[in-house]
Amino acid sequence: MSASTDNQKMPGKANLDVFSGTLQVLAQADREILAVTSDSRGSGKLVAFGQKFPAQIIEIGIAEQNLVGVAAGLASAGKKVFAVSPACFLTARALEQIKNDIAYSDNPVKLIGISAGVSYGALGSTHHSLHDYAVLRCINNIMIVAPADNFETEQAITQAAKLNKPIYIRFGKKPMSLLTEDESNGFEFGKGRLITEGNDIAIIATGETVYPALQAAIKLQAIYNINASVISMHTIKPLDYALLKLVAANTKAVITVEEHSIYGGLGEACASFLLENGYHKPFKIMGIPDEYTVTGSQTEILNHYGISEDGILKMSLQLLGLNTDEKTKP
Fold first, then answer.
1. How far apart are CA 150 and CA 127, in angstroms?
2. What is the pLDDT of residues 170-185, one digit of tens each?
3. Number of CB atoms found within 10 A of residue 138's CB
4. Which SS3 state, helix, strand or coil, does residue 244 take?
5. Residues near 50 by Cβ (< 8 Å), separated by ≥ 6?
6. DSSP 8-state code for residue 91
């Protein structure tokens, strides 16, 4: 395995903090960069941005449809617009505006969905964004990205500022450890990052679920002598089909992991491609099932549904035909 086996890494910053810091650096050098928010200055970590660049931030208020319309108009006039709003509302209330005003009109707005997945925890299902990958995957001409760590976040925002196409970037709230100290397999939209390489099982994850996937892989190797390939599939659309096909061909089973419904997200995108290309090995989508979501903190909810280090480890053993009492490869 190519990643460090130190599974007690201190977490870094929250990806949202890295987003804010990176945007400030970019805005200092380019006055065409604007942040547009829907009363999300605090939760979007844009307070410092607004203090430094009061002429480069626009507050729309709690009106997500207006937020997207204004962002599209500014982008059509040549501004580099980052539209920041909670993911659950941005991709539901303003979905028609995203479809028509941004994607179909080819306005290069950078949509930033904050507090995504179950980040809002105890606020309940109305505040969870478990649908955003699914609805946006159905819309032509929009990229979907979920950075996993601080490195991917800094790269995603820097590259998005130069991108002349619509893009949706999704962030959670908790501090994230670096996946690897080695940045030689750099960040590129549409190209997954192979964090560890192994020939027993492939664990393909996105966003904040990549880190527990990596920790599960480290335990699989240390305890069970099972070598896992772990992919940070940060770009869900367009998917890195070449990397997906490679790891699927060279491993005995595939697991996908996402903080999203099991319907319409990363897992189904991977499954449809692999099935169409003759893949017939064990495969499992790990995500939120089709039910009334339990209430609790983000960690409690993810643990409940097995989207955790131990949950991914157990699912890996199950797909490989092992139980937790067995210590060697099948």
1. 24
2. 999 999 999 988 777 7
3. 10
4. helix
5. 35, 41, 57
6. T
Which domains are seen in the chain, by residue range? 15-170 (3.40.50.970), 193-319 (3.40.50.920)
Distances (CA, A) of 128 to 90, 114, 172, 206, 232: 11, 11, 11, 17, 22
Q: How confident is the model at residue 323 (pLDDT cuts 50, 70, 90)?
A: confident
Q: Cis peptide leading into 238, omega within 30 of 0? A: yes
Looking at this protein, which amino acid is placed at residue 98?
Answer: I
Q: What's this model's pTM, rounded to 2 decimal places?
A: 0.94
> Which tokens belong to 209?
């679920």
Q: Do residues 180 and 188 touch, judged by C-beta distance below 8 A? A: no
pLDDT of residue 4 exceeding 80 = no
pLDDT given at position 7: 46
Q: How far apart are CA 16 and CA 263, in angstroms?
A: 26
**CA–CA separation, 151 and 179 (whole Å):** 9
CA-angle at 33, arms to 62 and 191, nearest 5°: 95
pLDDT of residue 9: 61
224 φ, ψ to 5°? -115, 0
Dist CA 10 CA 178 (whole Å): 9
Residue with tokens 């979907």: 144
Q: How far is CA 214 from CA 156, 177, 219, 305, in A?
A: 21, 11, 9, 18
Cα-based distances in Å from 195 to 250, 303, 318? 15, 23, 22
The span from the CA of 302 to the CA of 43, in Å, is: 21
